[in-house]
């Protein structure tokens, strides 16, 4: 055959090249088929061996099988009896190591790793399961909180009264001798927004035995009662024993563990916080956590100093000076006097940007905080003598712009746009998911939804979905957002729920035996690279009441290990499927046993 260039092909070369190529292809195909057959048969054999495991741990047979985490069984010794009210990060045994300036020794100071306890905190001698809500608001067992000192010191103020085997809570207080009900009635007359669902969340600084927060529960207002572990023994423990939300804390040198612009109301009833000292830095922290349009309520010195100064071991001139200094500081922070009557004064945080714009002017005190200072940074973050100015673009986060409770719970907060992946549809999906989960939980744990479970903690919430799903049950939920996770706590507060920042590598700011139910969803999956699982579970045991429950939703990889440690904690646990029977995720439903120390007479 002649080509265009006039050259000829050599015909004998064509069959010589084609035949070997064809044979080569046939041989290779056959060899590949043979290898494939061997591979497939081996794969089938291996899958046959692992099919039982895959069905437990993977949602799809295509996912590779991963052996569950296995750990050696362990048993924990009992702590000595003097650790019955052990609070690791606010331990009076360690106070002397820290300074007394601005009461810094009362702040969180967690023990170093080598000093962490690996023992089980015993209950007091004679401990009984707590009285159930709502009766618990008015009385508790004396042996559960055996502190007669506070009873003797505050008996004249009607805080509490010991009667037989119980403490009774008459509802008195330093500034409400006629009872907390009458005190709050007057407050509602001054702040009508407390009646119509506008005010939903509050914080009570220096809460005593939390009678103010307890009264507000019936009025649809959810209060975080805050007090340090100080000479007023066990204020927070009394509050939680009564079934009222509370947390250990003090305004000292660090920010409180709450986001900015969150609480609708803040309250101080002779809480002994020196508001006008140190340049008003404590007032600046109240300003930070109070949302625009929110109320700050003060009763006690120096309010009504004209009639009260004789009982305050001071002079009328000193009290007048303190009051004028307080008014000046509040005005400089963009607070306005809202109402005042008798012993109660109410200021409102401004929503008007024109006031905050003036803080940028030179030589103004307190000045506007620098933009580099994150408003919501609140985990071991030092207090700064400056005003955290509300962001002008967040116009719907002011109190007057929020929907009233309970509609507020269902509306996507404006600040959800600050969360990666956050949107109205994401919130709606999350709420729907948790309604299904809560319904399933109640089948597995019938006590949930009854007055057997009152104090609940969601240990690693996102939007507060679990708390929202059980909002109509006779309980309250402390929503915890990890200090290392996405900052979703502002959304929790915008929805009308309460919570706190926390790092589960450390102990929580509460007393032992203060929660009926601890719920977690993938906490170990998220934090096991930082936090030792053993210490997290020991902390859960410390804060869980005897006969209380832990509802652990976790990857199948961790479930066996958790169950092994829980056995060492003397918990009884059973494994359950999730609501959709997903194999890669399981539920562990545990109950803490009531046991007594070997030296206890209650054994």
UniProtKB/TrEMBL annotation:
> Which processes are annotated in GO (biological process)?
methylation
Where along the sequence do coiled-coil regions lie? Answer: none
Main location class = membrane
Alphabetized UniProt keyword annotations:
Glycoprotein, Membrane, Methyltransferase, Signal-anchor, Transferase, Transmembrane, Transmembrane helix
Q: Which InterPro entries match?
A: Put_SAM_MeTrfase, SAM-dependent_MTases_sf
Regions that span the bilayer = 21-39
Q: Which Gene3D superfamilies match?
A: Vaccinia Virus protein VP39
Tell me one GO molecular function of this protein: methyltransferase activity
In terms of domain of life, where is this protein from?
Eukaryota
One of this protein's Pfam families, by short name?
Methyltransf_29
Report the sequence similarity comment from the record.
Answer: Belongs to the methyltransferase superfamily.
What is the recorded name of this protein?
Methyltransferase
UniProt organism field:
Gossypium tomentosum
């Amino acid at each position: 055959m002649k080509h265009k260039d006039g050259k000829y092909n050599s015909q004998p070369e064509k069959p010589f090249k084609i035949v070997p190529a064809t044979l080569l292809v046939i041989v290779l195909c056959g060899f590949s088929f043979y290898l494939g057959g061997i591979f497939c048969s081996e794969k089938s054999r291996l899958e046959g061996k692992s099919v039982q495991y895959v069905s437990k741990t993977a949602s799809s047979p295509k996912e590779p099988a991963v052996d569950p985490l296995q750990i050696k069984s362990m048993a924990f010794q009992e702590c000595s009896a003097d650790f019955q009210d052990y609070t690791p990060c606010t331990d009076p045994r360690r106070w002397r190591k820290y300074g007394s300036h601005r009461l810094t020794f009362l702040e969180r100071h967690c023990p170093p790793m080598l000093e962490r306890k690996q023992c089980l905190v015993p209950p007091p001698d004679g401990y009984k399961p707590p009285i159930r809500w709502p009766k618990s608001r008015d009385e508790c067992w004396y042996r559960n909180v055996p502190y007669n000192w506070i009873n003797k010191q505050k008996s004249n103020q009607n805080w509490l009264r010991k009667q037989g085997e119980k403490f009774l809570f008459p509802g008195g207080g330093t500034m409400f001798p006629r009872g907390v009900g009458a005190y709050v009635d007057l407050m509602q007359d001054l702040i009508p927004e407390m009646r119509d669902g506008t005010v939903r969340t509050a914080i009570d600084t220096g809460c005593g035995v939390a009678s103010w927060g307890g009264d507000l529960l019936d009025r649809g207002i959810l209060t975080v009662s805050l007090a340090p572990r100080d000479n007023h023994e066990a204020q927070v423990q009394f509050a939680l024993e009564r079934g009222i939300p509370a947390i250990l804390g003090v305004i000292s040198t660090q920010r409180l563990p709450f986001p900015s612009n969150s609480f609708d109301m803040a309250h101080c009833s002779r809480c002994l916080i020196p508001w006008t000292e140190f340049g008003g830095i404590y007032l600046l922290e109240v300003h930070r956590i109070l949302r625009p349009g929110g109320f700050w309520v003060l009763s006690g010195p120096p309010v009504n100093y004209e009639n009260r100064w004789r009982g305050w071991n001071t002079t009328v001139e000193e009290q007048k000076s303190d009051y004028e200094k307080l008014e000046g500081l509040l005005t400089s922070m963009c607070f306005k006097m809202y109402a005042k009557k008798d012993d109660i004064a109410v200021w409102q945080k401004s929503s008007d940007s024109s006031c905050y714009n003036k803080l940028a002017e030179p030589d103004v005190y307190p000045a506007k905080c620098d933009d580099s200072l994150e408003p919501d940074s609140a985990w071991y973050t030092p207090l700064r003598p400056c005003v955290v100015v509300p962001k002008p673009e967040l116009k719907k986060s002011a109190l007057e712009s929020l929907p009233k409770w309970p509609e507020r719970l269902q509306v996507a907060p404006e600040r959800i746009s600050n969360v990666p992946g956050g949107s109205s549809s994401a919130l709606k999906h999350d709420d729907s998911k948790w309604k299904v989960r809560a319904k399933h939980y109640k089948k597995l744990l019938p006590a949930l939804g009854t007055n057997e479970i009152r104090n609940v903690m969601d240990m690693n919430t996102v939007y507060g979905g679990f708390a929202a799903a059980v909002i109509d049950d006779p309980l309250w939920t402390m929503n915890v957002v990890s200090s290392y996770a996405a900052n979703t706590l502002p959304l929790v507060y915008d929805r009308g729920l309460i919570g706190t920042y926390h790092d589960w590598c450390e102990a929580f700011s509460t007393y032992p035996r203060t929660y009926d139910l601890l719920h977690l969803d993938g906490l170990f999956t998220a934090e096991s690279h930082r936090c030792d699982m053993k210490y997290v579970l020991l902390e859960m045991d410390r804060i869980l009441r005897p006969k209380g429950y832990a509802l652990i939703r976790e990857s199948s990889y961790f479930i066996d290990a958790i169950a092994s440690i829980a056995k060492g904690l003397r918990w009884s646990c059973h494994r359950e499927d999730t609501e959709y029977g997903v194999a890669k995720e399981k539920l562990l439903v545990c109950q803490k046993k009531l046991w007594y120390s070997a030296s206890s007479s209650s054994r």
